[in-house]
Amino acid sequence: MKINITEDSFCLMSSEPRQWSLISAQTGLHSEYKQVLQDLAHKYTDFLLLDRCTDHAYNFSERCGVSDGNTYSYPFILQVGIL
Fold this sequence. Notes:
Layout (H helix, E strand, L loop, with lengths): L21 E3 L6 H13 L3 E5 L10 E4 L5 E3 L2 H5 L3
Parallel strand pairs: 1-2
Antiparallel strand pairs: 2-3, 3-4
């Protein structure tokens, strides 16, 4: 199934603009699919791609940004994405 997403799809009623239009926090992705997401994250600055943090991979309450290396509290970061 192909889903067309337009800029209007991301407009939400909020007093502050959203930092990210798309957040992916799924871990354990197939390497080919993960590479596609990494390419998109590097191309679009409003796409936040998260993965396990390499220095503490078994801490399931944190995710690390693939592009920026920052640590994010999980699942709280997903709530920020819907504001």
